Amino acid sequence: MRTDQRIVLAMAELMRRQGYAATGINQLASAAGAPTGSLYHHFKGGKREIAAAALRQTGAAYIQLLPLLLDPYDDLATGIEAAFAAAATDMRNTGWANMCPIGTVTGEVADTEPLLRAVAAEVMTAWVDEGSRYFADRGLSESDARSVTFAVLTALEGAFLLARGLRSDEPFLAAGRTVAMYVASLPASPPTPGSVVPGSRGA
Amino acid sequence: MRTDQRIVLAMAELMRRQGYAATGINQLASAAGAPTGSLYHHFKGGKREIAAAALRQTGAAYIQLLPLLLDPYDDLATGIEAAFAAAATDMRNTGWANMCPIGTVTGEVADTEPLLRAVAAEVMTAWVDEGSRYFADRGLSESDARSVTFAVLTALEGAFLLARGLRSDEPFLAAGRTVAMYVASLPASPPTPGSVVPGSRGA
DNA sequence: GTCTATAAGAGGATAGAC
DNA sequence: GTCTATCCTCTTATAGAC
């Protein structure tokens, strides 16, 4: 793998475990298998620029999980509950390490690192846009699709946090059940081929 | 106010804005209006011990908001949605500074600071216990009460995170609506004086 | 109990040889 | 493009005067 890719990957991994401030350049260099000089050769902006790249890359990868996890389920609510359960299992198996550096870092730097806050906002906005598009394609109205996207994202990030603190998967299960219940209560069932759902958009 | 109280308060304030790692002893000392020596006089464990005290104190204060915010509403679902909206307004008015140091810090230190992770778990456990008791008193079954507590806490912490990154109150509104919908779907209506709700506990 | 001065080390970043 | 050595700042923590 290319050196700059190794650096970004190592940064993402370290940030999701210990955040931005606690991650040192030397620790990062040794984790990436590169001397400190290489870091500044590839990223003239130093630690901050590496963190920005790591957030962007992880954020983009992260949202791709949505269709991957939900497509297999005909019923959206069922799929969402299953996805939360899967996330819980993943976290348990990795010793309750967070899966999402954006979540770990945003709270930490929102007031002190304008660049990283902006990158986080950019990533989250993309999440909301892509999530809304996906749920709209699954038959929800545009406004419901956006609402569900926020519901999923907030519940997921909150569940990461509580699960990480409590070392329990109970937050995931409760959060998943809650969002699933909400989705199930919405009008417009999943689109069956040939049917036209009023209020839904394109496909 | 006593010096040690000022120190703990300043620590809580700094942690919720910038987390644990980024908060330095000198910054803390000047924020608390005390020289560094005083910090170590009152807290022999240094920064870590001060952080632990701040988390405990804030956590205890935090959960007291639950009855304060929900008691005025006869309908639990309506109250929850209103509470989320109130939190959104509060955050907007404070320039999207986080209201909850436990949330900001837990993600950051869960893998690296065993003591603080344990304190976070202790605080969160108290949240769950007190929340469950409150919702049970409001007429939910014990298992539903616990589930709703987790739903509220995860949605709230997640909404803090996304609202902080996006600088928007949309996450709060969507999260509040979701949890309210879930609560409204549960059996057992709010207890009216004199009625006995099966499965509910004490009073 | 309060405050000053300082120790000992780690932090991010850079220069320049290779 | 890789790596080493180093600069300077800032960190936590302590010692000891008041």
From TrEMBL, chains A, B:
<dbReference type="Pfam" id="PF00440">
    <property type="entry name" value="TetR_N"/>
</dbReference>
<dbReference type="InterPro" id="IPR054156">
    <property type="entry name" value="YxaF_TetR_C"/>
</dbReference>
<dbReference type="Pfam" id="PF21993">
    <property type="entry name" value="TetR_C_13_2"/>
</dbReference>
<protein>
    <submittedName>
        <fullName>TetR family transcriptional regulator</fullName>
    </submittedName>
</protein>
<feature type="DNA-binding region" description="H-T-H motif">
    <location>
        <begin position="24"/>
        <end position="43"/>
    </location>
</feature>
<keyword id="KW-0238">DNA-binding</keyword>
<keyword id="KW-0804">Transcription</keyword>
<feature type="domain" description="HTH tetR-type">
    <location>
        <begin position="1"/>
        <end position="61"/>
    </location>
</feature>
<dbReference type="GO" id="GO:0003677">
    <property type="term" value="F:DNA binding"/>
</dbReference>
<dbReference type="InterPro" id="IPR001647">
    <property type="entry name" value="HTH_TetR"/>
</dbReference>
<dbReference type="InterPro" id="IPR009057">
    <property type="entry name" value="Homeodomain-like_sf"/>
</dbReference>
<keyword id="KW-0805">Transcription regulation</keyword>
<dbReference type="InterPro" id="IPR036271">
    <property type="entry name" value="Tet_transcr_reg_TetR-rel_C_sf"/>
</dbReference>
